[in-house]
């Protein structure tokens, strides 16, 4: 069985048509397989992260080819690592409230205080339909170390929600 490298590509560039195709073509032309990705347009930029697997003997060629995208995309290549077998229980939460600075800092601080590691975080702001102003919404998936007191995590997040005046829904 051939040795396969896992590469993580961080990409950013001015948003325009064809960026994903150019990246996918390069990965495919060099024996790579596009595994997972999170890509989005943010403030006129196209940005994201892509997980690629590539046979060991083609990894250096793929790295060199990706460097050739300068001017179209800035691409940084990072070595991936194997996922941990026992990451512990998964906690999913949603946060919704009036937008203000510090919400992500406060919520991520509460998670970190209980040893949870964020696996996925997506946030957005949108117009509040009736009240005016902006609403902040976050969706977070995190994993806890084995043996974590999930009731204590839930209680801490509920207390924080009252303190910073947001709604937090926890699925643990």
Automatic annotation (TrEMBL):
GO terms for biological process: regulation of DNA-templated transcription. Pfam families: ACT, ACT_6. Residues 92-172 form the ACT domain. SUPFAM superfamilies: ACT-like. Transmembrane segments: none annotated. PANTHER family: UPF0237 PROTEIN MJ1558. This is ACT domain-containing protein. It comes from Nostocoides australiense Ben110.
């Amino acid at each position: 069985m051939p040795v396969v490298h896992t590469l993580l590509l961080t990409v950013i560039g001015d948003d325009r048509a064809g960026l994903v195709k150019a990246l996918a073509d390069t990965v495919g032309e060099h024996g790579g397989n596009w595994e997972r990705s999170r890509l989005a347009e943010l403030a006129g930029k196209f940005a994201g992260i892509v997980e690629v697997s590539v046979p060991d003997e083609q990894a250096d060629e793929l790295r060199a080819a990706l460097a050739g995208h300068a001017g179209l995309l800035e691409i940084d290549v990072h070595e991936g690592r194997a996922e941990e077998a026992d990451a512990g229980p998964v906690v999913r939460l949603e946060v919704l409230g009036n937008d203000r600075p510090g919400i992500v800092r406060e919520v991520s601080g509460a998670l970190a205080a209980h040893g949870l590691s964020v696996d996925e975080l997506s946030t957005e702001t949108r117009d509040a339909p009736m009240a005016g102003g902006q609403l902040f919404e976050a969706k977070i998936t995190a994993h806890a170390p084995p043996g974590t007191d999930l009731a204590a995590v839930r209680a801490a997040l509920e207390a924080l929600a009252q303190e910073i005046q947001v709604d937090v829904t926890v699925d643990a």
